[in-house]
Prior knowledge:
Number of helices: 16
Structural class: alpha/beta
CATH class of the largest domain: Alpha Beta
Strand content: 15-25%
Number of domains: 3
Helix content: 25-40%
Largest sheet: 8 strands, mixed
CATH architecture of the largest domain: 3-Layer(aba) Sandwich
Number of strands: 19
Mean pLDDT: 95
CATH superfamily of the largest domain: Alkaline Phosphatase, subunit A
Low-confidence stretches: none
Amino acid sequence: xxxxxxxxxxxxxxxxxxxxxxxxxxxxxxxxxxxxxxxxxxxxxxxxxxxxxxxxxxxxxxxxxxxxxxxxxxxxxxxxxxxxxxxxxxxxxxxxxxxxxxxxxxxxxxxxxxxxxxxxxxxxxxxxxxxxxxxxxxxxxxxxxxxxxxxxxxxxxxxxxxxxxxxxxxxxxxxxxxxxxxxxxxxxxxxxxxxxxxxxxxxxxxxxxxxxxxxxxxxxxxxxxxxxxxxxxxxxxxxxxxxxxxxxxxxxxxxxxxxxxxxxxxxxxxxxxxxxxxxxxxxxxxxxxxxxxxxxxxxxxxxxxxxxxxxxxxxxxxxxxxxxxxxxxxxxxxxxxxxxxxxxxxxxxxxxxxxxxxxxxxxxxxxxxxxxxxxxxxxxxxxxxxxxxxxxxxxxxxxxxxxxxxxxxxxxxxxxxxxxxxxxxxxxxxxxxxxxxxxxxxxxxxxxxxxxxxxxxxxxxxxxxxxxxxxxxxxxxxxxxxxxxxxxxxxxxxxxxxxxxxxxxxxxxxxxxxxxxxxxxxxxxxxxx
Length: 529
């Protein structure tokens, strides 16, 4: 049962894109900026390959990353949440969503005031925390709604929870969403509730709610859902896609809750995609220019990772990415036009660096290819899944064992033995027997192959072929000795096939299982391991 867990670290960009200046950005690098904080931690992300991604020279790379990874460049004309998530999911946006540096035109504001029965205050680009300080008391006296925007394509409505109940505020947002169509189809209408008694203690609450414009065409979410699989949305994913292509969803009140719900999702029975957005990076720290807070949030995610990866099932795949940047130490509080990381981890994933790719929809292609769902969009899936490569068959494995036998060192017994061990990722480890004058240090071919594989960090095996005979002449099956069977039982399942070669020309072999060769074997389970 294949499952993909796609986690978007909202705004965790990894370096300025070549066209960043066209979007008003210079010298922006969210990851590099927070890496200078004393609160920054990245041990587990580094282990997956974060520091090995193109352009991350300021971090310390690891010799053997556990995951596959790439740096992705955006093709759409934007640097906001909606366009970023759309591109991740397969939609390229050639034109930016509308923004309002001078506030919304009269036709929009008058229609909104008439439909809600309330006047609009402010109507300017504004900081979300500052706007409630400057207009909050007037709002509480009059009941007028605080309407403001930013450098992003957003129509934001702030209201005190005691003055405008949440459900009423959400209804006002739905009204605005219906008004903001056509040339005024902003990416998101956002409810921004707050509490407090006066301007000195006004504080936004976690009851934010986004009402996004509907995607202009089908996304990978639609394709996965239409294929009869589940699309489980965590955080604001349901809002970003206006519910389109979502099977189930749950909202969160911050990163910590989002991480807990994502961890719990591992226990859910479903096949398909769990799509997660962790918004605090952006909303709580990026826009507020809080470098240390951003670093702490990243450290929290990094510390959480092992609890997730340890519970992953055989066919689970974890993907970690971002949707844009929001450098908390640059010259403005807006999003930044940055590359994003793409890290992939799972038992079916072949580790390695895939360089820099365009566009973000490489993610959509990689997700749908793994799930076996047809989906057409720009970009190519990263070739990271072991099952997508043709694995050596039994005949190839047997021929490899015969080849390995040639290297046997047997000056005392004269019996040459060869073995070929197949790993889950399709690699073959060859082994031969190596004798010693003291006899006891001698090692069998099967153990040589196993020890080579394990010493290189590979411990998942799918088959072994064994052959042997006097002076390398094959005259019938040459089964593993008892010690080798015990070593195999340490790492292999009883169902793993064992191919005993009976002749080389023509090639003839018989297939058994490890369990048949060593029934009721003593394994780590007997020691409670």
